[in-house]
Write the structure tokens for this entry.
Amino acid sequence: MKKLFPILSVLTAILLSYALYMALIGAPTERTMGNVQRIFYYHVPSALIGFMLFFVNFGASIFYLIKRKPAADILALVSAEVGVVFLTVNLVTGPIWARPVWGIWWTWDMRLTSTLVLWLIYVSYLFLRRFSSSGETPTLAAALAVLGALCVPFVYFSIWFFRTQHPQPVMGGGGSIDPRMLHVLLINWLAFSCFAFLVCWSRYRLEKLQRDVDQAHALESLMDPRGSVR
Amino acid sequence: MSGNGYLFAAYAVTWIIHIAYLGTIVRRYKRLQGEIEALKKTGPRS
């Protein structure tokens, strides 16, 4: 496993470089928006990976609530944290695209607002995990994660249910896209998915190590200098 | 700002966010390594 990580890191770096090249040079230039449209190759995969990670968080939280396995709790925490990072990228790149295309940075449209609310739910989840000292924190967080996951389909399909300024979804929706653009989008999605997997892996190892160290500190505080338990 | 400027800003901010997050992981890992070294120095007491 220790050898696999550097190999996967190198492969992911190559894939990300290729995806960047395709997004900037390989993909055709959109006729009306010009180069600004290329923001889409980072904006859309960030949202999709954020949603995927929130579903991982949902699954891990349910598993934790049923089986009480610490590994599931760690996976839930890690997936939420990395998911928030990706959704932050989505929320930041969206307005940068909107400014030249719509003429405004932000509008309180259903898709944008629901995405912001989803982000706030998962940020509050992370705050709960970080600052609550209760022994029941993982259980409370798992319950909040279930609520948060219910919002993900709402955010995705909000474009169908409400009149919105946001473009239609490229996959599973009414939007259409040039096949060459779709190809570049899928490459970027794959590259960022590999990147997200590696980040989650590192974060998982870190969290596990942190818990082992915390346990060692707790054991140490129970021992007296001669080694007997107090 | 031109279209290229917005494009550059979006790509740059994406990587700044990811690199900043990776930086927090590396910082936490280093702090943890320090704690592990301190625990090793304390040594097994039993």
About this structure: Helices of chain B lie at 3-42. Residues 5 and 43 of chain B are 56 Å apart (CA to CA). The longest helix of chain B spans residues 3-42.
